[in-house]
Specification:
By secondary structure, this protein is of the alpha/beta class. Helix content is about 40%, strand content about 25%. It has four helices and four strands, in the order βαβαβαβα. It has a four-stranded parallel β-sheet. α1 (about 15-25) links the parallel β1 and β2 (about 30-35). The protein is globular. It starts with 5 loop residues before the first strand and ends with a helix. The mean pLDDT is about 90.
Length: about 80
Amino acid sequence: MSAQAIRVGIIGTGFWAGYGHIPALRTLPEFEVVAVSARRKESAQQAAEKFGIPHAYEDAYDLIKDPDVDLVAVLPRPRSACCS
């Protein structure tokens, strides 16, 4: 394996991103979270600031196209949380 970390982009800034995925990935030296996106730019910026993530996007496609992102994790909102 290369010494360079796999650069991860996270789509979705809800509970699982903030509670599970981002903190877990930060403990693994093989990964570096470099970008996050959310439906609202403010949510993406808040997550980026909280976790020291350099890039925040409102449009998931902009995150996907970011040349600094090697891997994308998609964390959709559970159906029960959004659509009763």
